[in-house]
Amino acid sequence: MTDPGDAGGAGSATGPSRQLGRLTGRLTVEGRVRVVALSGELDFDSAPLLRSLFQEALDIDGARVVLDASRLTFCDSTGLNALVVARRAATERGSVVSVAAPTPAMARVLAMSGVDTVIAVHPTRAEAVEQAREVG
Prior knowledge:
By secondary structure, the chain is of the alpha/beta class. It has one domain: Transcription Regulator spoIIAA. It has helices at residues 47-57, 77-92, 104-113, 125-135; strands spanning 13-14, 18-20, 23-30, 33-42, 64-75, 96-100, 120-122. Strands 1, 2, 3, 4, 5, 6 and 7 form a seven-stranded mixed β-sheet that branches. The longest helix has 16 residues, at 77-92. It is globular.
C-alpha cells in the first residue's frame, strides 16, 4: 500500500477482488485517492460489500473516494442508500466521495433519486480521479 499522505498517486496498490452475491468489488489505492470499482448488481444482498469497501477506503481522514460504476449493471434503493451513507461518513471525516463512469441506467437512477445533486458524478474514471487529486 502506498503512503497515505501521497496525494500525487505515484504508486498504487490494488486489493483482491471480493464478491458478494452478484456484485464484485475491488479497492485500488493511489495516495489519498481510493477507487472502489464495482461490477454486477448492487442490491439488498450485495450492499454490505459496498459498505465494507467504503469503510476500508476511508481508513484515513481526508481520503478521496471514487466509485467506478462503469460495470455496475443494476442498483436498487438499498445500493443508493449505501452510497449516500458512505458519503455522509466520508464528509464527517473530511473526505469526499464521487461517482465515475456510470452506465446510462445507473446515471438515470442517480438523477431520478437526486443522489447526483449531493455526490459529484464524472463521465470517466480518469476525470474523477484527476478531480479527486485536485480537491485533495
